[in-house]
Amino acid sequence: MSSSVTSRPTALYGGQAGRRVTVRDVAAAKERGERWPMVTAYDAMTAKVFDEAGIPVLLVGDSAAMVVYGYDSTLPVTVDDLLPLTAAVVRGSSRAMVVADLPFGSYQASPQQALETAARFMKEGGAHAVKLEGGRRVLPQVEALVSAGIPVMAHLGLTPQSVNTFGGYRVQGRGQAGDELMSDAKDLEYAGAFAVVLECVPAELAERVTRSLSIPTIGIGAGPSTDAQVLVWQDLMGLTPHPAKFVKKYFDLAGEMDRAVRAFADEVVGGAFPAAEHSYH
């Protein structure tokens, strides 16, 4: 598709390359009733694989705190930790929209702080959009970013940056809390968010929210009725030893890596590697 043609409908997942996916493409997919996948990425090489596979949106998640930096929650990761990862994912991809998570403590204080942080991700990281967590308490931040021309993906339900407030990783949105989540989702749409992640909420609630919004919903542990689904790539590839209930393991990458590195080690110890074909003459 020519970069000068932006209005022609195209499949979001696996669509024709030639330009980046935009928020308009995501909105059009919602109108067509088209579901699509989003996965996390933290480096150029995996971003290239996912991009060439047709994944339309790559999230540089603050989950990097755990899967890249080895922390036990998302809270310790910083803007300076995530910026180089974001830039790497942008360089490694050519079609996918790259969304950068705003880490804990980098946007909650004020709309001005949110704008300064998001601007760094757009200018230094090359991100095409940012994601932040929370409902009505972050509406001023969302409005400020959208007014400045920065696309915002919202995040409701189990928001990992608030895990200490929730008392752990628990399902959110049951009972009256479901009505509050619905209200937050509508407020975020009105504030200008182009999509909203729903994490660890009852499937029935996620379905109601999806029907009530004109912007896409992206589920993670939110049942099958959201417009899109997202997983951390290490979870879906089988690298995570104890994944959450909502994770489906599509490949045993941990097992394959173990077999490969053991084979390499055995050949080194036994003298079979490097062989003549791996040596210069």
Automatic annotation (TrEMBL):
Its cofactor is Mg(2+). This is 3-methyl-2-oxobutanoate hydroxymethyltransferase. Its EC number is 2.1.2.11. It is found in: Cytoplasm. Mg(2+) binds at D62, D101, E133. One of its GO terms (molecular function) is 3-methyl-2-oxobutanoate hydroxymethyltransferase activity. SUPFAM superfamilies: Phosphoenolpyruvate/pyruvate domain. 3-methyl-2-oxobutanoate binds at D62, S63, D101, K131.
